[in-house]
Fold this protein.
Amino acid sequence: MTIYPQIILKPGKETPVLRFHPWIFSGAIEKTIGKPAEGDIVECYTSSGVYLATGHCMPGSLAVKLFTFKRQEIGKDFWHSKIRQAWQVRETLGLTLNDQTNAYRLLHNEGDSMPGLIVDVYGSMAVLQAHSSGMHDIRQTLAEAIIAVSQGKITTVYDKSAEAIRKMTGRIVEDGFLAGETGECEVRENGHRFNVNAITGQKTGFFLDQRDNRELLAQYAKGRNVLNMFGYTGGFSVYAAGSGAKMVHTVDSSAPAIALAEANMKLNGFDSPQYTCFTADARKYIETMEPGKYDVIVLDPPAYAKNVASRIQALKGYRTINAMALAKIKSGGLLFTFSCSQVVDRQMFTSAVTAAAVDAGRQVRIIQHLSQPADHPVNIFHQEGEYLKGLVLLVD
């Protein structure tokens, strides 16, 4: 069996690992045996020499991301087994053979015991995004495993890790194809059609985590005037129009995103004046819009907080944008509001929205709590993985 460098924890610091938490911080480490480089595999032990777990060595305060709590050889067979387990979960969820939906998340970080890695599937294309050097270093092995486990359903694997690796580690790497050669495709989600470009699109090309929430919006949008704020490529807008919304407006500050939103609306047959897309700043648009114009508003902003240091400012941002929307929404209207900031937990977000309701002077009721779909699972031992929080609010 391969001998890996060893991380020895300080006395008493093994408790989180014994509870299967997948992170080890530098302050918990007593010493290191061997000289592991960033991305190397390391084994973690108690101060008395008892094996705990195995993971990838990380730079900074988060020192190790753990991917197994069983001492074993880590090679191609191990990684293939991990991919196979994730595939079987998506089979159980009914996603791998679904005529109405062929876009889903195959691997979700800690939720699939693969911290530092996400893989999204778009038809026959998988987009891999590594958030650690360890996962990036084995990207070709992972691509081969994805193709093999899918039994031919996936033929293209695109590595889109460059930006994430640069932000997480400072390393400069390049995006590129690990298999196949085209990064554009058309996918289906609950019967709706969307264009995806893995190379030029944000994240892996599409925001799959809002699939269930888009479908929920469709239940409320019929006959209503809908505003999709921070609309990106128009996911919520397509669902709203498809459900029979009277009017759907999509707003985003990115002109390329709005161009994609317009294309997706037309792709689904929604090409008329009541379905309009605007390139505009969100706050300025809400400030100048007519009160009561919309009776359904979706607020799905990008992550306001990327780290703990920016959390206070992010909460102020959530409070401000929600107060503006609550002040302008039609009486009896519905606000779908979201936060995808992992460092802002559900209670913090709810408190910020509560403060926004006070600021707006409106009576507001929570009628539903929203989260990410089942293909974005949350490891029960790492509940920080519940990054997407949402509320459906009824505004009197």
Observations:
- The chain has a mean pLDDT of 95.
- DSSP finds eleven helices and 20 strands in the chain.
- The chain has three domains: 6-68, 76-190, 207-395.
